[in-house]
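Please fill in the sequence for the structure shown.

STRUCTURE ENCODING:
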């Protein structure tokens, strides 16, 4: 990270910071438009993330952020009062959290799908007893309730 910042700032410009309100976010480009609270000119396309494989923290529109200028024309957001989502990817593992819940994914497997599959299999369990196989899972409603709780917490994608 230090090398990336040094490389971006090798133009001799003085680095300084401003507190700004977020006015727009472009998630695809990982940039945000900002309005400094000191009334100065808007800052367009401030970088949300400087390294492609870092932690992407998307600020909420209307929230306050601190941005640091790495040149006369380019700013990087370094702190957030509120975030919309956070995500990171390390090789084939992805983690994302937002107001809808969180996603933990490795390749094509998600924690949400794994938990749903597990709970559905538990609900289909049958056991052999001395009188023959069981015919009904007595606490199936409780497992359905747990499955629904997981669906509220975890995201499929």
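FILLED IN BY: designer on duty
SEQUENCE:
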């Amino acid at each position: 990270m230090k090398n990336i910042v040094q490389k971006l700032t090798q133009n001799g410009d003085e680095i300084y910071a401003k507190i700004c309100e977020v006015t727009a976010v472009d998630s695809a480009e990982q940039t945000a438009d900002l309005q400094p609270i000191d009334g100065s000119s808007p800052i367009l396309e401030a970088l949300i993330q400087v390294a492609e494989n870092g932690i992407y923290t998307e600020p909420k529109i209307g929230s306050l952020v601190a941005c640091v200028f790495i040149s006369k024309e380019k700013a990087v957001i370094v702190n957030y009062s509120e975030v919309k989502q956070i995500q990171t990817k390390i090789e084939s593992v992805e983690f994302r959290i937002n107001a809808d819940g969180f996603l933990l994914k490795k390749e094509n497997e998600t924690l949400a799908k794994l938990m749903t599959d597990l709970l559905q299999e538990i609900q289909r369990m049958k056991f052999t007893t001395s009188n023959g196989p069981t015919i009904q899972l007595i606490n199936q409603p409780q497992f359905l309730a747990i499955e629904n709780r997981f669906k509220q917490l975890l995201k499929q994608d």
